[in-house]
Structures are given as structure tokens and as C-alpha cells.
Design brief:
The structure is a homodimer of 460-residue chains. The first copy, chain A, is α/β, with parallel strands linked by helices. Chain A has 15 helices and 14 strands. The first copy, chain A, has two domains: 138 residues, Alpha-Beta Complex (Aspartate Aminotransferase, domain 1); 281 residues, Aspartate Aminotransferase, domain 2 (3-Layer(aba) Sandwich). In chain A, the strands form three sheets. In chain A, strands 3-9-8-7-6-4-5 form a seven-stranded mixed β-sheet, with helices on both faces. In chain A, strands 10-11-14-13 form a four-stranded antiparallel β-sheet, with helices on one face.
Amino acid sequence: MPGAVLPEVATQIPGPISKASAKKLDEVFDARAVHFVVDYDKSEGNYIVDVDGNRYLDVYSQIASVPVGYNNPAMLAAAQSPDVISALVNRPAIGNFPSRWWNDILREGLLRVAPAGTDKIFTAQSGSEANELAFKAAMMLWRRRERGEGVAWTQEEIESCLDNAKPGSPDLAVLAFKNSFHGRGFGSLSCTRSKAVHKLDIPAFNWPKADFPVLQYPLDKHEKENAAEEKRCLEQVEMLITSWHCPVTALIIEPIQSEGGDNHASPAFFQGLRDITAKHNVVFIVDEVQTGFGATGKFWAHEHWHLSSPPDMITFSKRAQCAGYFFGNEKLVPDTAYRQFNTWIGDPARVVMSKAIIHEILDKNLVEKSARVGEKLWAELELLALDYPELVQNLRGKGKGAFLAFDTREPAALVGKMRSLGINIGTCGTRTVRLRPMLIFGDEHIPILMDAFRKVFGAA
Amino acid sequence: MPGAVLPEVATQIPGPISKASAKKLDEVFDARAVHFVVDYDKSEGNYIVDVDGNRYLDVYSQIASVPVGYNNPAMLAAAQSPDVISALVNRPAIGNFPSRWWNDILREGLLRVAPAGTDKIFTAQSGSEANELAFKAAMMLWRRRERGEGVAWTQEEIESCLDNAKPGSPDLAVLAFKNSFHGRGFGSLSCTRSKAVHKLDIPAFNWPKADFPVLQYPLDKHEKENAAEEKRCLEQVEMLITSWHCPVTALIIEPIQSEGGDNHASPAFFQGLRDITAKHNVVFIVDEVQTGFGATGKFWAHEHWHLSSPPDMITFSKRAQCAGYFFGNEKLVPDTAYRQFNTWIGDPARVVMSKAIIHEILDKNLVEKSARVGEKLWAELELLALDYPELVQNLRGKGKGAFLAFDTREPAALVGKMRSLGINIGTCGTRTVRLRPMLIFGDEHIPILMDAFRKVFGAA
């Protein structure tokens, strides 16, 4: 294909320099999860180059967090802009001493892509933090409603909360789903239900877990079973909300469960959640940390649902290269200042970078491009599944851009073999390979990826 | 004094442009805690300039988080260095795909100032996150010891943790102190005991709280009472550790409780904590988020204690302009990869900036400078306390650089009046004014600060 750079692999993966470098790093910094050590200066666009000189087509993009390619010229320009330099050198306590341009940066950047129905933002530094901040806003709203508008905090509340005791520190819950991933803080981890390695040995809140629908593929051959499965899960959600030992103040869900195995549900399911949460005054939080910023062929994955009313909060991170939550209801701003607060409240340098990313995505119609390329990639993967039905199962993500996945027998082995062919991909769940190309992944990269799959599967 | 720029205040504070700007911002971003809106381009060194053109001597430094001054030339150079540009544009998932220079940046930067007895690091994005990561490492170590080295996780553990249930999600505690501040995540907030505004309405873990010694001032006139008070608190700590309903895996303490009111304790008290934690296998975490990076006249405040053996973990953020924890015991690296992990594991752009800060501090002997200036500032404050004994009480921080504080009747009113004289200072606790000058605060700034105090108190 014209314009397509080919991967180049000259060593075993990881190569000797990568290995030595990771070993050296491991003396001071846990490097056991290092796949290879990277020369980012030599990486470009969709291609990542390791310190041994191997060049990979990157279809994993830093755990789904590279939006517009390595050394993207627009980002290089932004990184050298006066605003970024100033934000790096003069890091403000934004809540107390914001920069004169903070308002403009928000409006010209993140708020330009605020999901429909939202017009306010709170910034953070990670998806985990964004989710916890959203939980806190939901809990404060719940208690504000219970307490009554304008009713002062009682002395008992004020004193007991300093002892981590009721009524000041109440039992309030957030409902999440089986196989979900919402982060690794003590609150977000209590909502994460993906793998033991994320959770073992860490205390957790007694919060409810609902089943996420387990759909059967191909979807068009299992409409009835899948509808029944989603109905069952919705009924369970409502049962949990109405019967839990303490108030369920918020429900958090990923549009596509990513770490947990690329699990999808239908728009009707999410509309059901919207209805149930609205009925019970539960804040509906959509965790778009992995799906946001164009990953699914729309800027926000929840746009695929065409909900009757928007989610209450949308959290983001990863491809945004910064983090936070969007919301519309001003009651989600706590009753007084300093309740939702911290020293930095995000990182303005990263928020300015995010503005450049947003402009790049919008100016170059990268979401539309990714939707289009994703369709072609889907068609190729369908052919692959026909040729290797044992090795490519439950192909999923149709219509969700290039946010595609399938189950296979030995995902980790497949990833290793793909790397030695110069393709960097990732796994999720227990038997799934997930594709997380950047938004600039083009038609010309599809054959490179597919050739590698066919080589590996053909040799299996 | 030669070289000292004078503050300039030409409007009411906040000025009309600040007010209008904050109001506009508040439409989209909670701006109720904004003191004034800043023109960082015009700010320099110790002076912060607002959008109305008012220039303040900044003795609060973004809630104690500016190390070497606004628009510091070394930081400006670092912000434009290839490493920072690369880290901004190509943000890695450090745990999987570290940059070829990550190892060097850590060793030439943060590890150069690793506290004695530590030689390993885990990076994070905020003090809150750093503390929670430290808790998790302590909890995993505790269970590893209980489980036995090399003993595999049981199926029951693996399954139960996904339900937030025992034994996989055990009851494990972290002990913290009354009036402490350790962050606002659900775990760190369970250790924060400072003010209701930080904690109210948020669920908390049932973790123990010990009294922090309440010392009487001046110290040399209350030696006996203060020793008794510290003994009482130490006994309480040991009682809590040995009698709590679940294992206390870690103890976290600030060398000087900052948000909670600038509360000090003696080296003997901290040695007592070291002894008790060592005796009971409790991980001793020193939270140097506010005190680290030279704030107290030593690079790390716990150096003042001359402990018989070092703390197990030291967390940092704020002046470091990045965050994380240091440690020495390799058992604090969890038994397998991916247990202590997240997508970004800190922000390399900020870590490179931190390296520049460290070099600036070391090259210019800024810790020694701050210690020296702090002594003079202390002497002036003692004179002030003699002249205004009703308004300047419990002066504290002697020998701790410029990390000084005193109690006063109406701290918020004092801060307001000081701002209108062009001095930016902050409060803490319920009746305390805290000074948090940068490390470049010089002799020449002392009279400017003292003149303002005298003007305000003289008019009182």
C-alpha cells in the first residue's frame, strides 16, 4: 500500500538492549511488566521504535492512551507553546490561583468536546482520580438532598466524620459491574471487578456488583437470548439499588468494558440504566476513560446509545492526556467551596496539550476517519474469523470504529508472536485480544496487521 | 534592602479583573475558592502578579508547592528541553514501555535526593495517590508475610476479592493522627483527620486515629509537660496497634502537620514511633508531601530526627512538582508484576522538571539558604510576638527553616489584610497562619513581610 511503513524486527523481542535496560531500571523501579524499552524520539505516527531498533506498528498505543500518533507535529508545536512552558514552570494551585488563561483553555479545549447535556468540568490527573471525584460529588449530592437544601451540617456530623464514623462518614455505595475496571484507588478499586491482581489484599468498601450482560456472538443470530440477558441484568441492577444495605448514590459503567475483556452491551441496555438511575435518583456515571476521545468512531462512546436524557457525569483520561469529569447539573457542584478540591486539581500543562489534541482530531476529522477505517478493519477480521474459526471467536465491536476485539485460545502467546512480527497489540479479560489503534491508523495499516495475524494463525 | 522588589497593590483585592475573570470561570469550573486570578508570565521569583497588575510577595507559594520561584530560568530551560518535549508529546505507559531515558532521569533526579536508607522509587501524580500507593504496598507486604513467602494465592482469595469480600479483600488498617492531612482519595481521606469540609458525606474505612501531641510553647518552658504529652500519645499508638479490630499494616504521619495547624513533635516522639512500628511490623510511612524538598531547612524534614533506622517509606509531592514514594526494603515491591501498576505511573514530563528543580536546589545550596533565612525570620517573628503577644501566639518552627507558623485570633482576616498590603500568605488549622516561602526567599524579603505584619497588627 502506498505510504505504509513496514515494521522491522531485527532481534528477539525484547532485544538485548531492552533487556539490559529494563534490568538496570528494575534495580530502582519495578520493571517486571516492561515489554520493551522505547526510543520515543525515533517513534513516529503509528510506529513505535524500541532501543534495539525494532519498529512496531502500534495497535495498543500505550494501553489505549495515544490519540494522534507519536511525535505528532501539532503536539510538538503545543509542547513548545508559551502556555505549556508557563504551565510547566509555574504550576498553579488552580482552585486558588488560576492562570488568566485557564478559563479560555478549558473553553477552547475540553469544553469544546463536552458531551451533550454537560457544560461543566472538574479536572484531575488520572482516570482513577476522575472516577473517585465523581463518586464524591454524587455522595455529596445524595446527602445534600437528604439533609435538605440550605440546611446546615450538624455538630454531630462535623465531629463524627473526623472519626470516620456515622453520621458524618455515612455508608454510601457506588454500584459497578462484574469485570469492570475503574481504577486502583481505594474507592475506584472498590468498583473495579476485573482481576485479582488488581484487588487482592486491599480493603474494599461493601458496594454492590451487578452482572454485565454476557452477549452471544454474532449478535444478529442471538437477538432473543441477548435481549433476555440484558433484561436480567437490568432487573438485577434495580434489585441491588432498592435492596442494598445502604443508599446507592451512583452507578458507574464503561460503555465497553475494556480491561475486563471488551464486553459490549446494546443501546437499549444503557437506556435501561438511564431509566433506572433516574427513577431512583442514582447518579449515572459513564466511565469513558478508555472509550472517549474518538476511540469508538464517535467522540464519546455513549453517543452510540442516543439516550433519552444524557448521563449525569462522564469521566475521561487516557487519550485526552489529562483527566477529569464533565457534568451538567449544577447540584453536582458541592454546597460549599473546598469540598471538591485539592492542591493542583489536574495539570494545566496536560490540559493545554489536550486542547491541541482536540483541535487536531476535529480539524482532521480523525473520529470520522477512525470510524471509516474501523469498518474496513472489521470486514477483514470477519474474513479472518471465517478462515480461523477456532482462533478468532466472538469478534466484537462492529460499528464502534476500530475498538475491536476477539477471543482466542492463547492471547498472551499471540501477542508475543505478533510482537516478533513487528505488531504491538494487547490483551484483556482472560482470552481476548484487543485492538486499540490510534485515530490516525489508516487503511494502509490494515494489511500489515492482517498479514501478521494470518502468519501467526497459519503457523498455529 | 538592596535587590528587594516591593509589592504593589493598586486595587481592592481581588481586583475588578480578577473578580470578573473568576465569575466567568465559575460558569464552567468551581471557582469559589479563587483568591485572585494570576498573570504567571508577569510573576517572577518570589513575586506573584495578578491580572489587575497587583504584585504580591508570595509567602504561600501555591499551597507550599513552588520550590524555586516563578519563571525560574533553570525551569524555563528544562521546560524547553528535548526530554520534556518528548515526554509531553509521547506520554508512555511507563510500566510497559518506558523511555530509554527513564532510568537515567530517575537516577540523576529524584534518586539523587532519595532519603537515607532508601534506594527505590514508585512514581505517582499527587500526594494523595502517593500515599495510597504506599498503603497498598504495606498491605501487600503484610499479607505476603501472613501467607508465607512463595505461597500461592488461594482460589478463595482470588474469587472473594472480586466481590470486595474476605479473605481476598481483608480488613487491614492504616493508623493516622488527629488533625492529619494525607489527601482526598477514599483511602488517603480515611487517614485525613483535619477538617469536616474535607471528609463530610464520604464513606471512610474504620481505621484508627491516634492523638498527635499537643505541645505547649515556648518549648523550653514546657519540657516536662511536652515530654509527658508525647509519651501519652506514643502509648496510645501502641495500644491502638495492638488492640485494633484488624491488623494495622502501616502508620502514616507528617513531620509537621500542615493543613491541620502546623503541629510539631520532637525527634524523640518520632523515634518512639519508629521503635513501636518496628516492634509490631507496621510499615512506617512519613508523608513529606508538604515538608519535603528543603522546606524545613533540610532536604527531608525527617532528617531532623536522626532516627536509629530510617522510615520504611517516604511520600512526596508539591515542591517536587511530581509525586511518589521512596523505599528501601525490596519486599515492599509486591510479589508479582501488575499489582502496583497503572497506565501512566506518574508523569515523566513532571519528573524531568523535578530533576531540574533538584539540580537548582543542590547547585545553589537553596536548602542551606532557606535554613539560614529561616533563622533570621524566626528571630523577627519572636520580636513580633513580644510586641503583639495577643495576636502572635504559639510561634513555632524554630530550627525548621522558614516553615514557621503562629496562632492568631482571626487568621482569615489577617490573610485578607496582608493581601491588601501585597503579601500572599495562608492559614491552616483553625487559628493558625502558616508561612510557606519558596527556597529562594531571601533576607531582603524579611522586612517586607514583617513591615506588613506590623502594619496590620499595629492597626488592630
